[in-house]
Amino acid sequence: MNLKIAVLPGDGIGPEVIQQAIRCLEAIEESFDHTFSYKEAAVGALGIETVNDPLPQKTLELCKNSDAILFGAIGNRQFDHNLDTRLRPEHGLLKLRKELDLFANIRPVKAYKPLYDRSPLKKHIVENTDFIIYRELTGGIYFGEKKTWDQGRKASDVCEYSEKEISRIAHLAFKSARNRRKKLTLIDKANVLESSLLWRRVVSAIGESYPEVNLEFCYVDHAAMRLVLQPNSFDVILTDNMFGDILSDEASVISGTIGLLPSASIGAKNVLFEPIHGSFSTAKGKNIANPIAAILSAAMLLEHFSLFEEAMVIREGVDRALTKGIVTPDVNNKTKYGTSHVGDFIADFIVDHHDEVTMNDENIGLGRSTII
Ligand code: IPM
Ligand code: MG
Fold first, then answer.
1. Are 42 and 89 in contact (CB under 8 A)?
2. Which ranges of the sequence are coiled-coil (predicted)?
3. With 70 as the cut, is the pLDDT of residue 334 above it?
4. Which terminus, N or C, of the chain has the lesser number of Cβ atoms within 10 Å?
């Protein structure tokens, strides 16, 4: 398969984790005879510094004309106090989502067995946690009317949703639940918010077309509690933009480190894949950032194009790295491995996955020869 991939490494640790994700994609090209092309463009702080725009026009054009976008991270403290929010790095990402209509943000959350003890939650609570959050990404309070008045002493953000915005993501979430454990939880605040009542009405009606899926409703405050008390009681979560933002960060700690969690943002024409974590600027260039979230985002990219076997090999490589302890310091603070070692290990695993018997994991982890 030929794929044109737009690469937006972004700020902080973005470039170094994306470099490892690309290494793994190149290993997939080599092993499975695919041809992917990678074109890089600026976004976030780099865009502001170079052309005074966190989403330069050229970058947007490149993304529009690509089959998929691989995105690193965004954010730089230096610009946090820019009074003009359009000149903050985050605005580049928000604008990209809106311009490309990336309405569904999919965030899988999984507890990995070798890391059960890393979780801040007790082992019996995290065990078998495996759910997916479907977060609406281009509507709600993020994009409703924003106002300040009374000389800046009052401000408001409107949370607005339409039936259409809700139903297009609801269908994706129901389809996903149908292929999994057949449970969908709509998280809202329907005891207070009119927009949540609309979500309930629309999602309930759609639910009738998916009789095999068990639909339940959960208020967001209760859901926040349930995520840490019984995370394995969720299968597919469907929620709006703001609640999804907050709950996905909360959920990200379950697995023990946010450095493991990938995401996909799906639109009608374009798709974007990015790790959930931020730019972690203090770690930039130190070879300590966890590349696994970026690498798993690459696996989600492959799955999107139905390259399931390829994605599975990446996932196996990740499992192997975690089991062997070839991990970055966020997973084990005594580790001797860094970002590039973890990337090397997984990329080498991909290339050599047919030669199971001859692999020498110790050497791979040390960045030396892969075959004895
Ligand atoms: C996320 C981030 C973004 C969001 C920020 C960087 C604008 O927190 O992708 O979850 O709020 O959506
Ligand atoms: Mg967030």
1. no
2. none
3. yes
4. C
Cα of 305 to ligand 2 centre, how many Å? 26
Is 39 strand, coil or helix? strand
**3-state class (DSSP) for residue 37:** strand
Residue 229 has pLDDT above 60, yes or no: yes
What DSSP designation does 355 have?
A: G
Q: Report strand pairing: 262-266 vs 154-157.
A: unpaired
Averaged pLDDT, 248-269? 94
Gap between the Cα atoms of 271 and 298, Å rounded = 12
Given a contact cutoff of 8 angstroms between Cβ atoms, the answer to whether 214 and 182 are in contact is yes
Instruction: Report the alpha-carbon distance of residue 288 to residue 330 in Å, rounded.
Output: 8
Q: Which amino acid is at 354?
A: H
pTM for the full model? 0.91
**Can you state the angle between helices 194-207 and 163-178, rounded to 10 degrees?**
50
Mutation to probe ligand 1, out of 80, 94, 261 (largest number of atoms < 8 A from CB): 94
**What's the CA gap between 144 and 283, in Å, rounded?**
34
On the question of a common fold for 1-103+267-372 and 113-255, the answer reads: yes
Residue nearest to atom 11 of ligand 1 (CA): 245
d(CA 24, CA 123): 31
Q: Enumerate the domain spans of the chain.
A: 1-103+267-372, 113-255
CB atoms within 10 A of CB 242: 17
Percent above pLDDT 70 for the chain: 95
Atom 2, ligand 1: residue with shortest CA distance: 245
Residue 94's nearest CA partner among 138, 133, 153, 58 is: 138
359 confidence band (pLDDT: 50, 70, 90): low
- SS3 annotation, 207-237: HCCCCCCEEEEEEHHHHHHHHHHCHHHCCEE
Measured from the CA of 94, which atom of ligand 1 is nearest? 7
Nearest CA, atom 8, ligand 1? 245
CATH class of 1-103+267-372: alpha beta
Compute the residue count for the chain. 372
